[in-house]
Amino acid sequence: MPEFSIEILTLLFLVAGLAGFIDAIAGGGGLLTLPALLAVGIPPTQALATNKLQSSFSSFSASLYFVRSGLVNLRQMRLPILCTFIGAALGAEAVQLIDAGILVQLIPILLVCIALYFLFCPNLDQERGPSLWSESLFALVIGGSIGFYDGFFGPGTGALFTVAFVAIAKLSLVNATARTKVLNFTSNIAALLFFILAGLPVWEIGLLMAAGGFLGARVGAKIVVSKGQRWIRPMVVLMSMAMAIKLLLEQYPDWL
């Protein structure tokens, strides 16, 4: 592991803060933090684990703020939390056995569809009727499958949860974002446990970035509560498209 100067450590702290801010609003903060970790010389598997460590703190920060603001009732989310945790744990285990290549090809298309949905769907600032699914079915299918995806692959998890809460549970964009962060934190923790057992996180870097991410996420969560969909909607569209483009360029580098 290389030695890091004060300048590099400060940069990682600031990158994590910006990523935490973006993540609390729309997800996709890993687009900043993971390349930063790789750029300073941390090996890929350790970079993934360290990124999961710092992102767990930022998602916890946003979740805590949303719970304290009254946007999330944890008792009502016990079943989705449980299903998401189990799904993420299974995904983190499955990634060691299954080729993720098909997901790499499909997820950019899905992210573009999500961006278009949020771009053109009206009335995202209010509840739009009863949920299309029961609480149990939503928890099992959405919590379990997206949790599995986050443990297995990860990019776009926040956008997937948000669109499910909006399109299926019929929640407003603000309430959907708040619940998304709780489930995002759940899947982060489940996957992080596997990385810790494997001894992969670089703790010094991860905890430093965790501090930056925690602060950035707190600011982002405040923006969600105070500004609502004026910030969330364009950020979700922007980050979904950015993640789709990144994944496509990784598949087809000759496009550059």
Describe the overall structure.
The chain has 256 residues and is mainly alpha-helical. Helix content is 76%, strand content 0%. The chain has helices at residues 6-25, 30-39, 44-68, 78-94, 101-120, 135-152, 157-167, 173-197, 203-227, 229-251. Helix 6 packs antiparallel against helix 7 (157-167). The longest helix is centred in the first third of the chain and has 25 residues, at 44-68.
Question: What is the fold's blueprint, element by element?
Answer:
Blueprint lengths: L5 H20 L4 H10 L4 H25 L9 H17 L6 H20 L14 H18 L4 H11 L5 H25 L5 H25 L1 H23 L5
Helix pairs in contact: 1-2, 1-3, 1-9, 2-3, 3-8, 3-9, 4-6, 4-8, 5-10, 6-7, 6-8, 7-8
Helix content range: over 70%
Unreliable stretches covering 5 or more consecutive residues? none
Query: What is the H/E order?
Result: HHHHHHHHHH
Query: What structural class do the secondary elements suggest?
Result: mainly alpha
Overall 3D form: globular
Mean pLDDT: 90
Q: Main beta sheet: strand number and arrangement?
A: none
Would you report the number of β strands?
0
Rg over CA atoms: 17 Å
Strand content: under 5%
Q: Tally the helices.
A: 10
Question: Between the first and last Cα atoms, what is the distance in angstroms?
Answer: 31 Å
